[in-house]
User: Fold these one by one.
Assistant:
Number 1:
Amino acid sequence: MNAMSTDTLRTEVAIIGAGPAGLLLSHLLAAQGVESVVLETRTRDYVAARIRAGILEQSSVDLLTEAGLGERLAREGDQHRGIYLQFPHERHHLDFVDLIGRSVWVYGQTEVTADLVAARDADDQQFFYSISDTALHDVDTDRPYVTFTDAEGAPRRVEAVAVAGCDGSFGPSRGAIPGGSTWEKTYPYAWFGILADVAPSTDELIYAWHPNGFALHSMRSESVSRLYLQVEPGTDPASWSDDQIWDELATRLGHGQDGWTLTPGPVTDKSVLPMRSYVHAPMQHGRLFLAGDAAHIVPPTGAKGLNLAIADVALLAPALTDLVRKKDARLADAYSQTALRRVWRCTHFSWWMTTMLHRSGDPFDEQLQLSQLRWVTSSEAGATGLAENYAGMPFA
Ligand SMILES: Cc1cc2nc3c(=O)[nH]c(=O)nc-3n(C[C@H](O)[C@H](O)[C@H](O)COP(=O)(O)OP(=O)(O)OC[C@H]3O[C@@H](n4cnc5c(N)ncnc54)[C@H](O)[C@@H]3O)c2cc1C
């Protein structure tokens, strides 16, 4: 890093956002000898504590492992062969390993982030946390730069060969791409999620269709469960008591059926997550490249948000390495088009899982959903399609 003046830095890639996309990008670039600066509006503690996604596709696990981030994941992550799909009086196991030879892993986004931050710290990565006023400049030239106010209130400028917009759905990077197209769908339901200090009542995730609405039994570890209920958008988490939550989960997940029981426990976190699909194209303009939620949002039903961020970065890191090291822009120029193919596949799968499993209130939809669930759980072709999408296609 060359300090050109007290407040201007020159680096190779300026990365906006220290979520999984930004952190992983800085890690993969460093492995190729490419220097970056990571800019983050939140505090370091806030980023580390954020609770979000929890399922990793096989390709994400493989990439993290190859990048030297697999040690704790292999020790503490929980490999799942598949999922359970449930509708009234029936629970079916879809075994992805038997169907397609691939599996998924339960390893929280909080853990992925912690491993990445530890690795970047060990590598002396330069971070600026708690910044404000982030602005992108001259991204359509070969000397783009980012300005911001640092945690002490001093104005700063980072000049770079390229800027990576990894700043999530509310960051400024997407707005720095002129024109382009956006596709958006807001779903008429939300997820009420809880974390509970209790051992999961299931060995693998249960996705349940129920006349009262969708429910999901997921987990974070051997002693922490993560569960969700379909609720109306705008529901206040405080309006449900813990007993009401557990009663409704028991009903929708089929407590007592075929001897299965749901064990309640102390609720440590409650939140309501709106559900939407969003895609922005192109994901690139000049020397600005978007990755992760900055370019696309999926509803969480397909467990794709974090995995898509990782898949984008798997493409972007070699593209930026070639651009910086060899002045070869071929991969960089192809980045948006290549990434969007997987983005749309995952967008479709997430929409499909969401609309198959959530109550819309329309009796005709309901019969179609049940027919679809019976097909997916009784036909090898149907089950294989779900397995291939859920466990994820190999990275390009
Ligand atoms: C509440 C919630 C629950 C979720 N649950 C699931 C789930 O169960 N399953 C699933 O698959 N996915 C889930 N997701 C989606 C998943 O977490 C995201 O897809 C994933 O975090 C994407 O990573 P990212 O790095 O692209 O974006 P983010 O994780 O959003 O990181 C972007 C970073 O950019 C920073 N930033 C924003 N603006 C600026 C700025 N102006 N300057 C500098 N930095 C900035 C942000 O503070 C943030 O740290 C959830 C998302 C949310 C919001």
Number 2:
Amino acid sequence: MKTYSFPQGGISFDDPAAPSKDDCVTAFLPGISIIPLIQHTGSRADPVVSVGDHVSEGMLVGRGQGPLSANIHATVPGKVIRVVSWKMADGQTNDALVIRMEGAFERLGKREELFPWENLPPVEIQQLIADFGIVEMEGSGRPVSDMFYALRSDREPLTLVARCVFDDPWLAGDYVLCRDRLKAVVEGSMIAARAGGAKHIVFAVSHGEKDLGLELLAEAETWKTPVSMVLVSSRYPQRNQRELELVLRMYGKKESLELGTLMILGPATLAAIHDAVKLKKPILDRYVAVGGSAVRKAQVMKVRIGTRIGDVFAECGGFVDNPRRIATGSPFLGRTVVDLDEPVIKTSYAVFAILGGQTGVTVSRSCIRCGECRTVCPVGLDPEELYKQANAAADCPRAVECHACGCCEIVCPSHLPLSAVIAASAGRGD
Ligand code: SF4
Ligand code: SF4
């Protein structure tokens, strides 16, 4: 079977400080959970409960405010004891409900009721996905209902793409989920396809995970919607929208498939769609890769949303030394965490703490003109030149082409913050 790969740049990425994808432990339920009212790209939800109120597991506690906002739910039963605000590393202020766990769990440990969805009209499925606050769980966290809304005037055929691409060892949690909840991932893709009117589903699977791909395909073939599998490279950033679309267009051309518009969703999002529609359940927990050179025991954990990141590290044996950086996501792309009381949220596919010397915490020196950054840029940019222009606040029109994959920054022997500076420059509208 042919493996499709984006044509230029990229890196093979390994990180010994990332956890193994062979095991997963379930984290303790949080005695105190912190439920932020923004857990995704976009605007804050409005709280619908107040201090002193009792909440049940899965109850709506924040209502999304239109486009780019998503509903927020309590993940444990308990009492709202405080509302806290803090400034995140990007300068944005977030508010969160602090819930002290008490009372009975309505779902945990109980047999789940199953709700048939096959005969529901697409608009009702989309409404369930919106009601249960489903957002993309691996990327920026765009609300999935907004993705459907964006398709409303699209006349192209739609192909649903299940992105099982593991080009980064920090996606170990997604890999474990894909394996443990394979049926839910497949059924979630069928549900998403029906909601969006897709007539075909493609499972895009990393070359090295062909066996997992074949299992996904065998399960998917028990459903009526036509499916296929395409093997793609494991080179980072193969999972990015642009690089994945490139290879899927190559595949479509070779197979004479009219793919049309592509709706790309990762396995955690597909499982969440399954839970929202089939179980009428919001996102209560997620698989998280926990590790980094400062952490005593790296491991994949199934963690309740709202669990404090400090509690997650404590369950991994704590720190071997004071971390230089704590963040969520991959070490080179992560969002810095300013306080160990910040919680795991819907998009936290990884949390890490690193000592000086690991990727992302090194001192920058001068450019030595080695050209490595140009070699790895998948877009064909000259990151060194763009970085110079951005630093000089000069006109930098090509900066908007950068999709902030971070490849240039990872390979730069001078540890220059290339990607961050270029992305900031693009954001200023240069
Ligand atoms: S310039 Fe942008 S697109 Fe190119 S490698 Fe750097 S971050 Fe990636
Ligand atoms: S990789 Fe770093 S040191 Fe090498 S040319 Fe690019 S900016 Fe300069």
